[in-house]
Structures are given as structure tokens and as C-alpha cells.
Design a protein that fits this description.
The strands form 6 sheets. An 8-stranded mixed β-sheet has the order 12-11-8-13-16-17-19-20, sandwiched between helices. Strands 2-1-3-4-5 form a 5-stranded parallel β-sheet, with helices on both faces. It has a two-stranded antiparallel sheet with strand order 6-7. Helix 4 crosses helix 6, helix 5 (about 90-100) crosses helix 8 and helix 10 (about 215-230) crosses helix 14. A hairpin with a 3-residue loop joins strand 19 (about 370-375) and strand 20 (about 375-380). The chain has 2 domains: about 5-180, Flavin prenyltransferase-like (Rossmann fold), CATH 3.40.50.1950; about 190-400, Rossmann fold (3-Layer(aba) Sandwich). About 35% of the residues lie in helices and about 25% in strands. It has helices at about 20-30, 50-55, 65-70, 75-80, 90-100, 105-110, 125-130, 130-145, 170-180, 215-230, 255-265, 310-315, 335-345, 385-400; strands at about 5-10, 35-40, 85-90, 120, 145-150, 150-155, 160-165, 190-195, 200-205, 210, 230-235, 250, 270-275, 280-285, 305, 325-330, 350-355, 365, 370-375, 375-380, 385. The structure holds cytidine-5'-triphosphate. Cytidine-5'-triphosphate binds near residues 274, 276 and 309.
């Protein structure tokens, strides 16, 4: 894709990976983009403004208190007069400041004043990336709708340590920039989507619960894929160990009833994709105290009550989204059972899969699905859950476009 006429504000943070930002500037300019570089003080310890200025053919912005820079464009205009802000490399410090809204230098002030999308390419030592403080900051930035590329797994330039922390390669960053700037690749711009994902936990007492084997991988990947196509996504997630996906508003719930409430609260929407493995039953009268063993009395009997069917509720709601998609987890008669669910739950599309233990789908990385519509069916080959998500998001965009 050509980036002709696109204006990129490139914020270079202070890390050894800053040397790669020089190549990034070249790659962006090759594709016709204008790059306006902004360097933090630390970045200037790794690469010089002279090199950055020469490669970008632009003034290099460095100082919040420079009269010359402020008179030229100023930090507000710097943040606004661009199509996209890219931070590469983004250090742990820069992300921490952003997550907390600090603005004590030109980079952070411009980032706080922005009204444009931001793409962050983190680079740091794996221990710094794994630190709970960094994790909190990254989760916070993702919840604010900031996009990430990387970090990648690999050896660190400075210490030789291996792990997650290497900055994405310049061409990978260019790919992410192209994705974000291409209107063609954002057919769901302006559309609202609700996605459910993961299992639910139904309490027996304060320490025990009923759950299932859903990992949330497929639902989370779908939320992220819809967001990548431009949708404004609310992901209602049951308890999972996954990170919140990029650019998605995530609501964490435990019980099916809480999931239903969160979904109904997120209406109206254009699209609903109900991927969660909602527990069909909850314990009718969950105990508020830990149930103790009663010597001689044997185990207690659990009385179950039926949970609300969230998909059916949405599929028959007066504010029904234009497109309602459900999943069907089956272990036999996938097509017949899937079609019955399509009818019963008022869905436009059911994505059916065989979750028999031997398929390894539940909790695994891959999925093999059959799409059941009102007017037909199609089977997809076995794909990674990320690829199923990307294809499904495209399919949803096409179905909405045709509707
Ligand atoms: N679903 C839901 N709320 C429920 C149960 C299921 O929203 N209480 C949704 C799931 O998210 C999925 C679809 O309904 O999109 C089908 O879920 P599945 O577990 O396959 O089917 P069930 O309705 O539970 O039917 P059964 O257990 O008979 O297969």
C-alpha cells in the first residue's frame, strides 16, 4: 500500500532499539509518507537528531520549552497535524507516563494533547515487560484504545537475554501503520459490536464455583479482529487468563447473569457475536458462607437453576443488533444442532464447532468451524483461532454491507 500524503508523527523513545527507528523512517518515506520526528531526551543518547533529521528530511522536535519549536508548530499542533502517531521504540517509562497522563516533556505533552490514533511499538528488557507495573500500564493504554505492535520474542541487543521485549521490525511496524491508515481495511468504521468470550464462573459458595474449559482465545481474537476493521467493540469477558485485546473496551464479569446485564447495557449495537461458553446452570441458592463438611451427613446436594440464554435474549430483543452471531459447541451432529440453535436463538449466523476432547479445540490454538446461515452452510479448513477471527470479521463486514 502507498502511504502517499500520509503524515506520521514518529515519537522516538530512549532505548537501544532507537537505531531501528532510522530504518523505519526510510521505509515510511519510501512509501510516500511524511515523517515528523519527535525525540525524547533519552532517545538522543542512542541516535542523534542529526541522523534522524537527515533521514526524515524534517525538523526534529526535541524540546517542550524551545521557543523556536513552539513558535514553529507547538506541541498541540504537532500532535494534531498528522494522520497517525507512532511511538517506536516505546520504553516502559514512556508508556507509564502515557498511561498516567503525565506531560513533562515534548513527547508526553504532545501525546496528551493528541486527537489521533496511536500505534505503540514497545522495546525493553523482558523483565521490564513482565513487571506488573508495566503490565498494568499496557492494559490501561489498551483500554484507552491505543494499538500495539509487539514486543516480539528474541534476544536483547544489550544483554543477550532472550524473551518478550524486542521491538517489532521496521517492516512489521509499517504493515501495522498501513492497516491502521487504510480506509479499505476498516469497513466496520462507525459500527458498534458486542462480543462475549470465555467461560462463566457460577458460585457454589464463596470459594467454589462451576466452570468449563473455555479459554476465551476465540472470543478475544474476534473482538480484536472486529476492532481492527474499525468497529467500536465492547468485549464482555468471563474469567480468563488472557490480556485484554488491543483497542477494545473490556468488561470483566464472572457469572452468566452479570454477563447478560453487561451485554444488555452495551445495547444498542450493530453487531453481536456471542462466543462465551456460558454455563447453562447456576447453583440455585449459592451459599454466602463456605460449605463445611458435615461428618456423617455425606456430601451436600447441589440444586441447579437455569441461567439466562444471552444469545437468545439478544436475538429476540427489541433493540436487536442488525447482525447476531452465535457459536455452537457440539460434540455430535454439528450441522443439525447448529441449525436448531440458529432458529431457537434468533441468530443470523451460527459458527459451529466440534469440541469433542480429541479435537483439542477447547483451550487449544486452532479451530475448525462450519458456518450455518439461514440460506446455507459453509465449512472452513482448520485454521488458527486468530485466522478464524480475521475471516469471521471480514464475513461480518460483508454481511452487514449486503444487508
Ligand atoms: N449462549 C448464551 N447464553 C447461554 C448459553 C449459550 O449466550 N446461557 C450462547 C453461546 O455464547 C453460544 C450459543 O449460545 O453463542 C450456543 O452455546 P452452546 O453452549 O453451544 O449451546 P447451549 O445453548 O448451551 O445449548 P446445548 O447446551 O443444548 O448445546
Amino acid at each position: 500500500m502507498s502511504l502517499a500524503g500520509k503524515q506520521i508523527l514518529l515519537v522516538i523513545g530512549g532505548g537501544i532499539a532507537a537505531y531501528k527507528s532510522l530504518d523505519l523512517i526510510r521505509r515510511l518515506r519510501e512509501r510516500g509518507a511524511c515523517v515528523r520526528p519527535l525525540m525524547t531526551a533519552a532517545a538522543q543518547q542512542f541516535v542523534t537528531p542529526l541522523a534522524v533529521g537527515a533521514l526524515s528530511a524534517s525538523h526534529v522536535y526535541t524540546d517542550l520549552f524551545s521557543r523556536e519549536d513552539e513558535q514553529d508548530v507547538g506541541h498541540i499542533r504537532l500532535a494534531r497535524e498528522c494522520d497517525l502517531i507512532v511511538i517506536a521504540p516505546a520504553t516502559a517509562d514512556l508508556m507509564a507516563k502515557m498511561a498516567n497522563g503525565l506531560a513533562d516533556d515534548l513527547a508526553t505533552a504532545a501525546l496528551l494533547a493528541r486527537d489521533k490514533q496511536v500505534l505503540v511499538a514497545p522495546a525493553m528488557n523482558p523483565r521490564m515487560w513482565e513487571n506488573p507495573a508495566t503490565k498494568r500500564n499496557v492494559a490501561c493504554l489498551k483500554a484507552d484504545g491505543i494499538a500495539f505492535i509487539g514486543p516480539m520474542r528474541g534476544e536483547m541487543a544489550e544483554s543477550g537475554e532472550a524473551g518478550l521485549g524486542r521491538m517489532a521490525e521496521p517492516l512489521e511496524i509499517v504493515g501495522a501503520i498501513e492497516d491502521m491508515l487504510s480506509a479499505r481495511s476498516r469497513p466496520l468504521q462507525g459500527k458498534k459490536a458486542i462480543v462475549t468470550s470465555g467461560p462463566t464462573h457460577e458460585p457454589i459458595d464463596p470459594v467454589r464455583y462451576i466452570a468449563n474449559r473455555s479459554s476465551g482465545k476465540q472470543g478475544h481474537a474476534i473482538a480484536e479482529a472486529l476492532a481492527r476493521l474499525g468497529a467500536e467493540v465492547t468485549l464482555v469477558s468471563g474469567p480468563v487468563t488472557l490480556a485484554d485485546p488491543a483497542g477494545v473496551n473490556v468488561i470483566h464479569v464472572e457469572r452468566a447473569e452479570d454477563m447478560r446485564d453487561a451485554v444488555l447495557n452495551a445495547l444498542p449495537a450493530d453487531i453481536a457475536v456471542m462466543v462465551a461458553a456460558v454455563a447453562d446452570w447456576r447453583v440455585a441458592d449459592a451459599s454466602t458462607h463456605k460449605i463445611k463438611k458435615q461428618p456423617g451427613e455425606g456430601p451436600p446436594a447441589l440444586v441447579l437453576a437455569e441461567n439466562p440464554d444471552i444469545l437468545a435474549t439478544v436475538g429476540h430483543h427489541q433493540a436487536r443488533p442488525r447482525l447476531v452471531v452465535g457459536f455452537a459447541a457440539e460434540t455430535q451432529n454439528v450441522s443439525v444442532n447448529g441449525r436448531a440453535k440458529l432458529e431457537r436463538k434468533g441468530a443470523d449466523l451460527i459458527v459451529a464447532n466440534d469440541v469433542s476432547p480429541e479435537t483439542g479445540i477447547m483451550g487449544g490454538e486452532r479451530n475448525s468451524v462450519r458456518l450455518i446461515y439461514r440460506e446455507g452452510e459453509e465449512s472452513w479448513p482448520e485454521l488458527s483461532k486468530a485466522d478464524v477471527a480475521a475471516k469471521l470479521a471480514e464475513k461480518i463486514a460483508a454481511m452487514l454491507g449486503n444487508a
